[in-house]
Design goal:
Blueprint: H1 17-46, H2 52-80, H3 88-114, H4 122-132, H5 137-206, H6 210-230, E1 236-237, H7 238-256, E2 262-265, E3 275-276, H8 281-291, E4 304-311, E5 314-322, H9 335-347, E6 352-358, E7 361-369
Parallel strand pairs: 2-4
Antiparallel strand pairs: 1-3, 4-5, 5-7, 6-7
Length: about 375
């Protein structure tokens, strides 16, 4: 079973308070550097003597410090209580609170730094209000909007990552289920194959032919060695499967003798390049044997045909055998074809196994895609 691999993004979790504070300070420090540089350049153009370090300190202390407090505080607040801006009415209320609380506090802070707090009359209050009326409106409102935009973007990003994780979990679950289905099919198939092979040897033992029986046991050992190695692989080449079928037929020929006749056409280099599920061809041949030799009473030889044909980007494998209306019922359990069909579907969505009757013959046709590099 494959282990799930998560792909967390940078904003997959709310940022910590120290990281938020550090990034906010660095951002407003950079803005202060640019703002002080612009003020210094403007002063030079109009002939005002100024010192850049003093302008930088003024920019940072007067403008950046309040906005650092606003940015860091609002970011951490929204990270912990995102419901505050879940609805437009909440956003409007938060902005009104910003205007009624933070803006006067910022004005008072800047007035204190500039020495404007010496108030002796209502006229002094009016003049102070007029001086501070336009101070900080744009930067405060812009900061509020930027923080909201980042927060909304983070929420969208988190939902997207959550969706991606859910899709990954679903795909991993589907893969695990498909692997379990494949293992179940393989566990069901291998005893079925072993039973039929032992059945061939047992027939020799009943006939008293010990030499052939011992030879059959040796051949069965070779077949089981391939089957065991195939059980730990997900694919095999068609050429390897064809060789396995030949070994299987040699074992069955110990039981049927010269009656077992299988004609193979279309063998070529292509079979070494096309992949298929392990133990693909053997159940098709076994099914043909059951429908042909095991259903005959006349002792006539079989007429089983195995052919390979390339049809565009598909390799077509056909196994055919004659079917008689007077033939006895199929003695097999019928597991081979059903399992083969399921294993093909699991290997590739376009791979298939179909069966039909044509011209008095039973036809099992496998279609495998040619996936070339």
């Amino acid at each position: 079973m494959n282990q799930r691999v998560d792909h967390p993004g940078f904003f997959s979790a709310p940022p910590s308070a120290p990281r938020t504070l550090v990034s906010t300070v660095l951002l407003w420090a950079a803005i202060s550097v640019l703002g002080a540089l612009q003020t210094y350049s403007d002063n030079l153009r109009v002939g005002i003597d100024s010192h850049y370090p003093a302008l930088l300190a003024t920019w940072f202390v007067e403008y950046a410090v309040p906005l650092i407090v606003l940015s860091a505080g609002l970011s951490m607040l929204l990270a912990r209580r995102p419901a505050l801006i879940a609805r437009p009415s909440n956003v409007f209320a938060l902005f009104v609170g910003l205007v009624l609380v933070f803006q006067p506090a910022q004005w008072t802070y800047m007035a204190w730094l500039r020495g404007y707090l010496h108030i002796a009359s209502l006229d002094d209050v009016r003049q102070l209000f007029m001086k501070m009326l336009l101070v900080g409106w744009f930067s405060t409102t812009g900061t509020f909007a930027a923080i909201l935009a980042v927060h909304y973007w983070r929420q969208v990003r988190e939902r997207e990552l959550a969706w991606q994780r859910s899709q990954t979990d679903m795909l991993n679950l589907r893969l695990a289920l498909e692997e379990q289905r494949m293992l179940a099919l393989r566990a069901q198939f291998e005893p079925h194959f072993l039973f039929n092979a032992l059945n061939a040897i047992s027939a020799l033992v009943r006939d008293g032919d010990r030499t052939l029986a011992l030879g059959g046991i040796g051949r069965l050992s070779d077949l089981l060695r391939y089957a065991l190695s195939a059980s730990v692989r997900s694919t095999a080449t068609v050429a390897a499967e064809l060789q396995f079928v030949r070994d299987y037929l040699d074992l069955q020929r110990l039981r049927y003798g010269d009656r077992l006749q299988v004609h193979i056409d279309g063998e070529g280099r292509l079979l070494h390049e096309v992949e298929c599920p392990p133990l693909l061809l053997q159940p098709l041949i076994e099914n043909a044997l059951r429908h042909d030799l095991d259903c005959r009473h006349s002792g006539a030889p079989s007429d089983i045909r195995l052919g390979f044909v390339q049809d565009g980007e598909v390799l077509v494998i056909r196994v055919t055998n004659p079917v008689s209306a007077q033939a006895s019922p199929n003695p097999g359990a019928g597991l081979g074809l059903a399992n083969t069909r399921e294993r093909l579907k699991l290997m590739h969505p376009t791979a298939s196994l179909s069966t039909s009757l044509a011209d008095g013959r039973f036809v099992a046709e496998v279609r495998l895609p040619l996936e070339r590099e």
